[in-house]
Every structure is written in structure tokens, then in C-alpha cells.
Amino acid sequence: MTYLPKINDYVKWHRNGHIDEGWVYFVCDQSISIEVGTKPKCEQNVKDSPLHKKTHILVVCQRWYWHELEYVTSRNSIHDENLTETYKSQEYRPIDP
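The structure corresponding to this sequence follows.
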């Protein structure tokens, strides 16, 4: 069976004797991006965009290389619909929007 990458899968990409590994960050029909690292943004960049505190280092893997990917594991995302059961609202807040 052919592996189809999904966001939040951890993969290893075996290519030319080198291995890139990390979390699948983006998926479309033609390619994926794999987050191979992060680094903190400088203080000014964090002030300009407080929601994004890190720079993500990504490699692009085209669809014709997906056969070189090794699936390792998956992680849950805070954006998954399945996690609504475990989400706790702030104390004294009647309902979340």
C-alpha cells in the first residue's frame, strides 16, 4: 500500500544516502513540506507578529518522491475536531465562541 502523507505525521525522507526527518507541515496534491527544524524569531519580529514566535525550517518533497518517505508516528493538533472533548474552558467563562 502506498503511504499518503498527512499534516502532523512524523516522517523520514530517505534520499541519496541522506535522511531528512520531521513533521509534515503542509500537504497538497503535488507536494508536502516537512518541518526539519525551528528557531526563535528575533524580538522585533515577535513584536510584529506575536502569534508566530518561531521561524520554521521546511523542505519540500514532491509527490514523485513520496515512495521514499517512511511514516514514523502522528501527533494530535489543537485544531483537530476530536480534541474538543478534552478542551477545558477558562474558569468562570460560560461558553467559548
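Residues 82-87 have pLDDT under 50 and may be disordered.
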